[in-house]
Design goal:
This protein has a ten-stranded mixed sheet, with helices on one face. The longest helix has about 35 residues. It is about 30% helix and about 15% strand. The radius of gyration is 27 Å and the shape is globular. It is α+β, with helices and mostly antiparallel strands and about 950 residues long. α4 crosses α10 and α15 packs antiparallel against α16.
Length: about 950
C-alpha cells in the first residue's frame, strides 16, 4: 500500500526475481500515491516522558498489492512494515531475564506522541484539515486534524491504507456472507455458520442501531455517529483512490473481484451499517458472556440421573463452582459484588425432559460443494499461479478466531498487571497490559495515534471500528481491557403453539408470548460461491435459517414436562452492538478522563463484558463493564428459564432489547489497591462465574503469585513487572500448580520401578527449574526438559480421565467435559483455542484436579468437590491410577503426542507450540516461539499529570 509499495525480504534487500515478477504484471500495479515529507508542528502534551511503550506484531502494514503477494509466495519478501515488529516481540522470550528499563525498547515500540522530524517516513494529507504522518521505525499512522470531521476522516483513510481487505472480510463475516465474498472453503462455511446465528440482522435492524445511538445517547451519540460517518468517508476515499491508482489489496484480484489487467471490478463502498456488523463480530467474541445453559442443564440431568436429584445437584454445583472461595480474584481486598448467584429457591427453571433436546438446524438446501469442500481448481494465468489456492483452507482457517472451529467455546483472553505507586521504585503506578486476540497477518487490530478536537490518544482499535482508540494511552493516562465474560446472556424456554389451536410439535414456528400465540420471525441468508484462483472450492450454495423471537434466537428444541418448547438465547447487547462507542469516545477525550474516577465512569458506558484497567501518575484503577440485566427474583441464571413475564428481565422490552441493568456501583471496581492482575479470572467475591472453570487453579495464579511477590519486596520497576509477565507467559500451569500435588501422591510410597522412578525425577527436575516451555537457546527450537514436557502433554488427558471417569461414569464425565474441556495446553490443538494460537491454560480441569488431589491427600480444601474421585478417595488407589497412566504416557512417542499439521512435522514439539500468524490475506509470516501473552501490549509509567 502506498507510500509503502516496496518489497523487502527479511534481510532488508530486494530480490531481483520479485522485481521481474512485478514487471511481468505491469508497472501500473506498482503505482504509489503522492506524499509530502514535512513534519508536524505543535506537539501534544505527553506526560509519559518516554516511559510508554507498546508492541503489535507482525507489523502495522496489513495491505499488500498483487505484486507484493506474489513476491511473498515466490521469494518470501514482505511489504514494508508488515513484519518489522515480529522479532522484537519474539525476542522477549530470551531477553526478559536480563531486562532493564533501558532495554524495554529493544522489545517494544516507543509509544510517545508524535514523530520527531528526523524519524518521519511520510506525510499524507487526504484533506486540507488532516495529516497522516508515518514513522520510519514502524509505519504507524499518527493522525492529526484541525477539525473533528477531518480527524475522523483521516482515521478512516489510514484504516483503509492499513486494513482495507481485512475490514471487507469482517463486514461480510458479520453479515453472514463470507462464502459469497471470499469462497466456499469448509472453514469459511463453518465460520459464517457460527457467527451469523449469534447476531442475525436485517439491514433495517442495522440502520435502527445507528439511529438508536444517534437519538438515545444525547450530544455524544450525535457526535459519535458524525465521527463514524467521517471515518466511513475516509475509508471510501482511500478505497476509490486505491482502486483507481491500482494499488488496492491483491486479494481482490485473487478472489475474482477485480481483473488485474483491465482493472474492471469493484470494491463495494462501506456504509455506517457495516461498522455495526463488524462491531457484532468483535464485541460478541471478545466481550460476550454467559449462555450455554442448555448444555449446563444436560450435565445437571446426567448428575441427577447418576446420583438422584438432591445428591446429583450437589455434585453438579461442586463442579459448576459459581463462587469458588479459592479462586484468584482481581479485586482482592475483600469487597464483594453479588451478581448472578444461585437463588435460595429457584423459580421458573425449565430443565428439558431427558433425551428430548435437539439442536436447531441451520443449513438448508445444500448444493455442490456445500458441506464437502470438494475442490475444482480454475486455470490460473501463469503470473498468478504462485498464489493459487492460498485460501483453500479458508480465508480465516478453522479455529483461528476466538470461539470458532469445531467444538469451540467462547473464550475470554488478555491479561493485565498493575502495581500501585506505593510499591514501585518511582512512586508512580506501573502497568503491563494488553488484549490477547490471537495471531493473524494482518492483525485484527491496528496501531494508530489520533489527535484532533476532543481526541488525544495512541493505541489500538479493531480494524473497521477505529474511530477512536479502544485500548491505549492518553496524554497522562493509559488503559486496557481483558475479557470479563460475566453472565449477560440467558436461555429461555418458549412454549410452542399453533395459531389454530391444534397441538404443537417440536418443529412449530409459533410460541406463546405473554399469553398470545405469536409467529417466530424467519431470518434467512442465501450464499453461493464458485472457484477462484485463491479458493479452489467447487461451486456450491446453501441457505442459513434462524428463527428469531421476542426472547432471542432459537438454538434448540426439546420438551419440558412433556410440552414442546424451543430454547432461545437472549444477549443483553443484541441490537446494541455499537452502543459502546460512547464509552470509547469518552476514553479518548482528554477533557473527560482526568483521573481514575472519570475513567471508571467512561468505562461504565461500554456495554460489552470487559475488565478495564487504568494507570496515571497517581492511581491504578479497575472497572468491570457490561449490560448486566437485572433478573427476576428467584431466577437461576445458570440454567434455562421459562419464557413467562414473571421470569423476564426486569423492565424488559423486546422491541429494542432493553431492560433494567445493574447500577454502576454494583459492578466490580476498585481504585488504589496494592496491585491488580487479570487473566480472565474471577473479578471479585460474590460475582458469580458465568460458566465452568473459575476454580482453585487458574492461569491468573501465574500472574498473582509473581506480582504479589514483587509487591512484598517493593521497588517495582517497569522491567520487573514485564519480567513477571514474560515468565508467566512461558510457564506450564500444570507443571507449576498441579505437579507438586501429583508428586506428593506418587511419592506417598517409594516408586519401585527404576524406569518409572526416573520419569518421576524428570518431571520433578522440570518443576524445580520453573516448569517452562522454553527453548535452550535462541533459535535452537528445542525445549529445555523437552522429555518432561512431552510426558506431561501425554499424561494430562490420561490422568484426568483415570482420576474422574470411573467415579463420575461415562455419561456424567462426557457431559461435564462438554461444559469444560479437560486441557488447553499449547500442544492441545483439540482444545477451544485451536493450534498455534498462543493463549493457553484458560480452560481445563486444573481446578477440579487440584481440589480432588488435596482432598485425597487429606489437606484442607475450601469449596471442595462433593465427592472424592481419584482412586475413589483412597490414596493408594489414586497413586496406582496416576502411576499407571504416567507409565503409559512416558511410552508415547513424540510423533504421536505432537502429530503433523500444515505447519509442523510429526514430533516437532517446539513447532507444535509455536505462534503462527494466520494469514487473513496473501502475506504469510514466520512462526514464533510460544508465548502466552497479549497480542498488543503496553508497558507504561507516567511520571507526571496535567
Amino acid at each position: 500500500m502506498p507510500p509503502r509499495t516496496r518489497m523487502t525480504a527479511r534481510t532488508g534487500t530486494t530480490r531481483a526475481g520479485a522485481v521481474a515478477a512485478a514487471l511481468a504484471l505491469g508497472t501500473s500495479l506498482l503505482a504509489a500515491a503522492p506524499h509530502a515529507g514535512a513534519a508536524e508542528a505543535d506537539p501534544v502534551p505527553d506526560h509519559c516522558q518516554g516511559q510508554c511503550a507498546d508492541i503489535l506484531p507482525p507489523g502495522e502494514n496489513g495491505n499488500a498489492t498483487l505484486v507484493e503477494i506474489l513476491g511473498n509466495k515466490a521469494f518470501g519478501t514482505h511489504p514494508a512494515h508488515s513484519d518489522d515488529q515480529l522479532d522484537r516481540y519474539d525476542g522477549l522470550v530470551a531477553g526478559h531475564t536480563a531486562l532493564t528499563d533501558r532495554k524495554l525498547t529493544d522489545f517494544f515500540n516507543d509509544a510517545s506522541f508524535g514523530v520527531p522530524a528526523d524519524r518521519v517516513e511520510s506525510v499524507t494529507s487526504p484533506r486540507d484539515d488532516v495529516t497522516i504522518t508515518r514513522d520510519k521505525a514502524t509505519g504507524v499512522p499518527h493522525i492529526k486534524g484541525t477539525t473533528r470531521y477531518g480527524t475522523e476522516f483521516g482515521a478512516g483513510y489510514a484504516a483503509g491504507q492499513d486494513r482495507l481487505w481485512l475490514m471487507d472480510l469482517f463486514r461480510h463475516i458479520g453479515r453472514g456472507e463470507l462464502t459469497s465474498f471470499a469462497g466456499g472453503a469448509l472453514a469459511n462455511q463453518g465460520l459464517e455458520q457460527q457467527f451469523w446465528p449469534q447476531a442475525p440482522y436485517t439491514e433495517a435492524d442495522l440502520e435502527a442501531q445507528v439511529e438508536y445511538i444517534r437519538t438515545h445517547e444525547g450530544a455524544r451519540g450525535e457526535q459519535a455517529m458524525a465521527d463514524a460517518q467521517a471515518y466511513v468517508d475516509g475509508i471510501n476515499a482511500y478505497r476509490k483512490k486505491a482502486k483507481d491508482g491500482r494499488y488496492f489489496p491483491g486479494e481482490y484480484v485473487l478472489t475474482g473481484k477485480i481483473d488485474a489487467l483491465t482493472n474492471i471490478g469493484e470494491i463495494q463502498p462501506f456504509k455506517l451499517t457495516d461498522l455495526i456488523s463488524i462491531a457484532s463480530v468483535v464485541g460478541g467474541q471478545f466481550g460476550g458472556g454467559g449462555g450455554g445453559e442448555v448444555q449446563a442443564a444436560l450435565s445437571l440431568l446426567a448428575a441427577q440421573q447418576k446420583y438422584g436429584v438432591a445428591e446429583g445437584t450437589k455434585v453438579w454445583e461442586s463442579f459448576r463452582q459459581r463462587n469458588d472461595p479459592e479462586a484468584v480474584l482481581t479485586v482482592h481486598d475483600g469487597t464483594s459484588f453479588p451478581y448472578a448467584n444461585k437463588p435460595d429457591k429457584a423459580v421458573g427453571t425449565a430443565l428439558p425432559d431427558p433425551g428430548s433436546v435437539t439442536a436447531e438446524p441451520l443449513i438448508h438446501d445444500r448444493t455442490g460443494s456445500a458441506g464437502t469442500g470438494v475442490k475444482a481448481p480454475v486455470r490460473a494465468p501463469a503470473t498468478l499461479r504462485k498464489a493459487q489456492g492460498i485460501f483453500d483452507d479458508g480465508v480465516i482457517p478453522e479455529g483461528s478466531l476466538p470461539g470458532s472451529g469445531s467444538g469451540a467455546q467462547k473464550r475470554g483472553m488478555s491479561n493485565a498487571l498493575l502495581v500501585s505507586g506505593a510499591h514501585t521504585a518511582s512512586g508512580n503506578p506501573i502497568a503491563v497490559f494488553g488484549p490477547q486476540t490471537g495471531y493473524f497477518a494482518p492483525q485484527l487490530m491496528m496501531l494508530q495515534e489520533i489527535q484532533g478536537p476532543g481526541i488525544s490518544a495512541r493505541g489500538v482499535s479493531f480494524a473497521g471500528v477505529g474511530m477512536y482508540v479502544q485500548m491505549g494511552r492518553g496524554q497522562d493516562y493509559a488503559w486496557s481491557a481483558t475479557s470479563a465474560g460475566q453472565d449477560i446472556t440467558d436461555t429461555y424456554a418458549i412454549e410452542l403453539c399453533e395459531p389454530d389451536g391444534s397441538a404443537p410439535g417440536k418443529d412449530s414456528a409459533h410460541y406463546l408470548y405473554r399469553g398470545t400465540c405469536t409467529a417466530m420471525e424467519k431470518m434467512e441468508k442465501a450464499n453461493s460461491w464458485k472457484p477462484t484462483v485463491a479458493d479452489s472450492t467447487a461451486q456450491g450454495s446453501y441457505r442459513m435459517r434462524v428463527w428469531r423471537t421476542n426472547y432471542g434466537v432459537v438454538t434448540h428444541r426439546a420438551t419440558v414436562d412433556g410440552k414442546p418448547v424451543a430454547y432461545t438465547s437472549l444477549r443483553s447487547t443484541y441490537r446494541h452492538e455499537a452502543d459502546s462507542i460512547i464509552g470509547f469516545q469518552m476514553l479518548n477525550d482528554p477533557s473527560y478522563v482526568t483521573d481514575a474516577a472519570s475513567f471508571q465512569r467512561a468505562a461504565s458506558n461500554i456495554d460489552y463484558a470487559f475488565n478495564w484497567f487504568y494507570a496515571d501518575s497517581r492511581t491504578a484503577a479497575y472497572y468491570n463493564s457490561g449490560m448486566n440485566p437485572v433478573r427476576a427474583a428467584g431466577v437461576d441464571p445458570a440454567l434455562p428459564v421459562r419464557a413467562e413475564k414473571a421470569y423476564e428481565w426486569q423492565g424488559y422490552d423486546p422491541a429494542a432489547n432493553t431492560a433494567a441493568y445493574t447500577a454502576f456501583a454494583e459492578h466490580p471496581h476498585s481504585s488504589g489497591q496494592d496491585y491488580y492482575v487479570s487473566w480472565n479470572n474471577k473479578q471479585a467475591a460474590g460475582y458469580a462465574a458465568a460458566g465452568f472453570g473459575l476454580s482453585a487453579v487458574h492461569r491468573g495464579d501465574l500472574l498473582d503469585d509473581r506480582v504479589a511477590k514483587l509487591v512484598a519486596e517493593g521497588g517495582v520497576t517497569r522491567a520487573a513487572l514485564t519480567r513477571a509477565m514474560a515468565e508467566a507467559a512461558l510457564t506450564d500451569l500444570r507443571g507449576e500448580q498441579l505437579l507438586p500435588e501429583l508428586l506428593k501422591v506418587i511419592r506417598s510410597q517409594p516408586v519401585p520401578d527404576p524406569e518409572l522412578n526416573a520419569v518421576v525425577q524428570q518431571l520433578d527436575s522440570w518443576r524445580a527449574a520453573g516448569a517452562q516451555r522454553k527453548e535452550t537457546s535462541p533459535g535452537s527450537h528445542t525445549y529445555g526438559h523437552a522429555d518432561a514436557v512431552r510426558i506431561m502433554d501425554a499424561w494430562w488427558p490420561r490422568l484426568i480421565e483415570a482420576e474422574f471417569r470411573p467415579g463420575l461414569g461415562d455419561g456424567l464425565y462426557g457431559a461435564l467435559t462438554a461444559n469444560l474441556a479437560t486441557d488447553e495446553s499449547p500442544a492441545a490443538s483439540h482444545g477451544p483455542s485451536g493450534a498455534h494460537s498462543g493463549s493457553a491454560f484458560q480452560y481445563g480441569w486444573w481446578g477440579f484436579a487440584d481440589k480432588d488431589l488435596r482432598q485425597v491427600l487429606g489437606q484442607r480444601v475450601e469449596g471442595p468437590l462433593a465427592r472424592e474421585y481419584c482412586g475413589g478417595g483412597d490414596l493408594a488407589a489414586c497413586r496406582t491410577a496416576l502411576l499407571s497412566t504416567l507409565k503409559e504416557a512416558a511410552a508415547v512417542p513424540a510423533a504421536q503426542v505432537y502429530p503433523a499439521d500444515a505447519t509442523c512435522g510429526a514430533g516437532d514439539q517446539w513447532c507444535t507450540d509455536s505462534l503462527v500468524h494466520r494469514p487473513l490475506g496473501g502475506i504469510s509470516q514466520k512462526s514464533l516461539h510460544w508465548q502466552n501473552r497479549p497480542t498488543y501490549q503496553q508497558v507504561v509509567e507516567f511520571p507526571s499529570h496535567r
